[in-house]
DNA sequence: GTTTTCCACATTGCATACAATTTTTAATAT
DNA sequence: ATATTAAAAATTGTATGCAATGTGGAAAAC
């Protein structure tokens, strides 16, 4: 395996984690200088990472005006979650056709990590909740589908970060467990129903206030210099 | 309107067109120097464009080894087209819920351009055939869905460029027209059936090289039965 | 004749410099 | 005070240079 990690790779990964864990909130400006300085690299590498984050829908770049954590509009919520349901239905259908024991184990293992992070009140739990869905997509073996799910989950996370209440009962670990059970039993109908309910529940969390305050990027990013677990 | 087009924007657009019109074939190396030279800009701008094309799935970049037009594997074909059907079904369903006259006009106008390009034997016809589907997605008003469709259509185009015969009967303009009629009549069942058949027909162009393989006539013909109940 | 080694060349990763653009600040006029 | 304008500072867009990595081919060894 080519473990050649370029500098912009690690910046990309760190920024991504920081955004998905809501350390960097929607709207936060991301000047190339500050980012490069925090990570000890030049603007060139920072910019490269930002461009990639933009195509992920996590960052918005406006010409000559710089980058900022993306701020999805509230009216995108319905659209994004509808599309998410569409894609994740496809995931469930494919998984029910062939589900290995290893896959079940991987899913259960992931949920255990979610529980651990939640008990520790770690911001990791927010990200892990989303990555559970990405793991599901990965288990289909389809790189394309995984990419799409990854993007739509990111986008949904941003919407929650902006409009949801501060991760109250974040994620519904219980629903994740029930979904795994249904998949293990190859019960497609049940799995689809659980997923649908789960996603509606998540969507409903997008309700309340919009806290838009300017924050200091450098101080936050210090905690995300290296990434403890791999990105999906 | 902000018509601020940066240099890497135009390089991005040009390269994208060239790839989708099969002027640049899968596997073609894309050295930053050559690209910069061709467009009269520096490597910096060329690289920026390449990074974006990579996230589009049109270009593959390997660290220290440079970029090349992406070469999807043959076994991706089934996966890509399955996903494409999934997404475009969503498009059709959304369009049938509300279809304006302007939309119909835009679609018909696009098809007229397709016909013009096809008569002129222009390579534009290849790209326009794909962009018809992107236009459909755009008309749903969902930026997310449009982005996904755009990407999956690009990927499918690459597969055809690599494994299909040299755009024989490229695109099925007739099917595009019939689809528009069904949409105009808000006949969801018919529209879905036509789209499904259309996409299978496109996919079959990639399979056609495997001469001896098990060509199951029944399974192919089955798709042309117009059975709306089987659609989901 | 085939394989291996090594070196020149090509290409990328990254940093830095400078020009162009935007944002902020200060000064002036109303 | 408020609004307007202009200069200063900050930030991005782009070009270029250098070090690091990868590639291809000639020479040497087998």
Automatic annotation (TrEMBL), chains A, B:
A molecular-function term among this protein's GO annotations: DNA binding
Residue stretches making up the HTH gntR-type domain: 5-72
Database matches in InterPro entries: GntR_C, TF_FadR/GntR_C, Tscrpt_reg_HTH_GntR, WH-like_DNA-bd_sf, WH_DNA-bd_sf
Listed PROSITE patterns: HTH_GNTR (PS50949)
The entry's keywords: DNA-binding, Transcription, Transcription regulation
SUPFAM superfamilies reported in the protein's UniProt record: GntR ligand-binding domain-like, Winged helix' DNA-binding domain
Gene3D superfamilies, A to Z: GntR ligand-binding domain-like (1.20.120.530), Winged helix-like DNA-binding domain superfamily/Winged helix DNA-binding domain (1.10.10.10)
PANTHER family tied to this protein: HTH-TYPE TRANSCRIPTIONAL REPRESSOR NANR (PTHR43537:SF53), TRANSCRIPTIONAL REGULATOR, GNTR FAMILY (PTHR43537)
Stated name of the protein: Transcriptional regulator, GntR family
